[in-house]
Amino acid sequence: MAVGLRTGLPGMVLAFLATTVLAGPVLADAALTLANGTQTLEFSIDDLAAMPQTTVTTANEFVDGKVTYRGPLVRSVLATVGLDKTDNVRFVAANDYYVDIPTQNFRDYDAILAIEANGERLSRRDKGPVWLMYPISDFPELQDPIYSRRLIWQVVRITSE
Fold it and tell me: What is the reported pTM?
């Protein structure tokens, strides 16, 4: 809904209320924040969905069988604030759990920030809305427990370590 300059504050308030009522409440935990020093960038799930998407079909110890995940490449998201140029990044989950990962992983493998599984948006109940996913089934070396520990879900923040 566009608000013209002549509508002023009352028009903007009405536009905000209409947008909030029509779109529903904005969920702060549905956003991903990237921080590199003083540079910070926030993505909504829709922002992540608007980026070029990669599909990864893989098994992992947290699901039954192979699942098809979809989301942007981690290296592409990291590049938006220069985190791809650091040696390590910290992924932080909604519950403050975190894991530090060498950025070389994201140059070597097409890991994604999964926002969908089998065509459905990931919910908190399904380890979403953002789940770091490696193509584990495609590379025997990724079937090491260290990579299972890096499959952090409910990711809300990625920072330089």
Answer: 0.81
